[in-house]
Amino acid sequence: MKISIQKILQQTPFTFEGKTDLSELESFDNDIRQIGSVEVSGEATVQNKTITVNLHIKGLMVLPCARSLADVPYPFDINTIEVFSIDPFYTKEDESEIHPIKGELLDLTPFIKENVLLEIPFRVYADQETIEKHALTAGDGWAVVDEDEQEEKIDPRLSKLQSLLTDDKNENQ
């Protein structure tokens, strides 16, 4: 999403809205499995030689469930403020949150991507029905066993010991 600096300077506050395609985030090394276009709206104001942009980003991303790795739709709604400097002599030497602008266009796309990436939660969970549907019950050399099944089945390596225990019970009675 690119906005002309001249438009912002002529019409302050400058309001805008539109959609931005963020499908590139799917190829990054993160948990986002699917994300399409996000709705972006905002307002840009000018004060001295800085442009303050209030951004509202709204969309839906698909993330893996922490338990079953099933797809979980995760809606997000982000409000953020970004500050830009139009001073040609401004250099970002310190750790300030003011971003220099080079050229005649203000490109908000990298800042939109950054805020969406920061919005990814640590874990998401699918509903119980989806988890049960996608849960693994067996694999290469392993299987999920209920406690009832475990008690009935005796480890073959310990079967000789089991026979000794039954002999002891017979002798004691």
Task: Provide a compact summary of the structure.
This protein has 173 residues and is an alpha+beta fold.
User: What proportion of the residues form beta strands (DSSP E)?
Assistant: 35-45%
SSE ordering: EHEEEEEEEHHEEHH
Distance between the termini: 87 Å
Low-confidence parts lasting 5 or more residues at pLDDT below 50? none
Number of DSSP E strands: 10
List the domain count as a whole number: 2
Separate helix tally:
5
Class computed from helices, strands and strand pairing:
alpha+beta
State the helical fraction: 10-25%
The residue-averaged pLDDT reads: 84
Largest sheet: 6 strands, mixed
How large, in whole angstroms, is the Cα Rg? 29 Å
Overall, the morphology is: rod-shaped
Protein name: DUF177 domain-containing protein
Region (Disordered): 147-173
Name the descriptors.
2 domains; alpha+beta; 173 residues; two-stranded antiparallel sheet; YceD; DUF177 domain-containing protein
Annotate the secondary structure layout.
Blueprint: E1 2-4, H1 5-10, E2 14-21, E3 34-35, E4 37-47, E5 50-64, E6 71-85, E7 98-100, E8 105-107, H2 109-118, H3 128-134, E9 138-139, E10 142-143, H4 147-152, H5 159-172
Parallel strand pairs: 6-7
Antiparallel strand pairs: 1-8, 2-4, 3-5, 4-5, 5-6, 9-10
